[in-house]
Each structure stands twice: as structure tokens, then as C-alpha cells.
Amino acid sequence: MSKDAELVKKLKDSSLKDTAFSELLDVYQERLYWHVRKIVTTHENADDVLQNTFIRIYKSIGDFQEKSSLHTWMYRIAYNESIRFLDKNKKKDYDNIDEVSESNLEVLFEDEYFDGDEIQNKLTKLINGFTEKQKRVFQMKYFDDLSFRKISEILDVSESTLKSTYYTVVKIIEEKIFL
Amino acid sequence: MEKSTENGNKKSFLTKGFKGDISKHHKKYLGTDVPEGYFVKSKISILDKIKVDFIIEEPKEIKKQLVFSMEPQFKYLVAASLVFALSLTVWLQNSNKIDTINETNFELLAFSDDVLFDSLFIDETEFEVFTDVTLFNEVVVKAELSEQKLDNLILDNLILGDSLLDHHINDVLVETIIL
To answer: ipTM of this model?
Structure first.
């Protein structure tokens, strides 16, 4: 039995649930935080979304049918919570998507816990300029180190589409930053 | 020389992916950071929130048990007051019943007095007609009816007795002839 499967078994047992949940936080809290942070931009927002994500995980673990891995299931919850957060806090007075991207960058650069140098700012700006799909695929693959199969389960997009999107983005980054 | 090493590092950013500390990786390439000791504090905060949200129902039941188990005097006091309240209710109900009976008797007496007084002023002819009708209904009709009933009974018995006797004689006769 894998470590995750063992953890799920404990989480579904009411007498072991709290101990197992603490263990789950030790393993996945940091990974999920960074996954969320890249979507909601600031540390403060990421903190809110992370709390909601783990509360939802605690509440729904009984319904987890183990069709996907625990890891993927939690990432999907975190992703959905982040999107829900963005929808809730979306400003309605933007004229187009470029304005939203610009605003995201402003928010990021003003964040207390952002301290990027020239190259980091350039990369951030570049990633921020991609479409939502390109951005998510690149971030999940590169920064969260998820396999294409897992990303495909989280975003509900075919693996071949994901691969093509990822390599397009990588090519653009290489051209714009390193060449 | 320094520049070529830098470029080499940057290229490895895209080809190798990250290995190890995910927070350091984000700090290195995106310039994003988290407050000191954030993940420990966040874990405690999530666990506290879960305790408040989900384990709030159990103490309620324990509290209910404690009221009686911690203070036995309270239990006796409640039992005594319940017995007192019950007996008071029964006593009050009984006392009310006696009053109502007395009231009814007084009413009956008053009613019968009224009837007696009224009967003195009734006309003789009306009284005679009333007594005749009553006498006819009560004595003559009832006597007739009881006489009829008696006749019917005697007739029924006679007919039944005759038929049985005939039947018996016939049976005896047939038996005697055969034997």
C-alpha cells in the first residue's frame, strides 16, 4: 500500500482522522500553498485560499472515491478554490484581459512578500502575459513538478494538448529571456 | 566567463526542472517569498479552525451529562419539585370537582323547586289529559306488549315441543319396525 493510500485510509477512519490530517498538512501544505499562490498572486490571498482548501479537504475526504490519486484530488480542490476566490474578488471595471494582467502584476509587485530581481520580474511579466491556460500548464509542470497525466486530470484537458501548450510556452521563454 | 555560467544556469532552469525545496525554487526563479515560520503557524491555524468548525457538536452532549452527574443535589431538587407539582395539580383538580358537584346539586334543587311551584298553577283538565295519556302509554300499552310477548313465547314452545315429539315418535316407530 502506498503512503498516500495509507493516509487516505487513516483519514477515513474517524478515530485516526485528526492525526492523519496533521500528517497530510506536513506533506502537502507547502506544495499546495505555492500552487495556490501562483494563481491568486499575493501571500495574503494564498493564505485565505489555502485555509479554505484544507477545510474543504477535511470535509470531503469521506466522499473521496480514490479514482485519482490523493495528490491530484487535492490539487484539483486547491485549483477550484483559487478560481472561486478570483471570481469572487474579480473587479468588473476592466475593459480587456490585458488590463487584468497589468493589474495582477501591479498587485504582485506591491506584495510585501515579493522581491524579484530584473530577471525574475522579466519572467513574471512574461508568464503573466500568457493566456490563462498556458500560464496554468507551465506553472503546474515547471514549478509544481506535476506530470502531464496529473495536470490533465486537474484541468480536464488532454495530455497531448498540454504537452504542445507547455513546449510552446517553454520555447517563448527561452527566446525572450535567454537568447 | 561569468556571463556564460549565468546563461548556463538559466538554461538549466527550463531543462532540469526543480528538485528539492519548493519554496527556495519559487524564491529563486519568481522572487516570491513567505513570512518566517509561516507554514508552522498556518498549520496550527488550520487545525484550530477545523476544531472550531467540526468538533463543536461533541462537547454539547458531554455538557448535558455533566449537569446531573456533577451535582446530585440538583437532581433531587428537580425530582422533589416535580412530585410537588404533580400532587398540587391532582389536589387542585379534585377540589375543583367537589365545587362543581355542589354547584350542580344547588342548581338541581333550585330547578326542582321551580317545577313544584309551576305544577301548582297547572289547570286540572290539562293535568287529567296528561295523566290519561301517561297511564295509557305506560300501563296499558306496556301491559299489552308484555302479554303479546308471553303468548308468542308459549306458542313457540308448544310448536317446537310438538315437532320434536313427532320427530321422536317417528324415529322410534321406524326403529321398532326395522328391528
So the answer is: 0.75
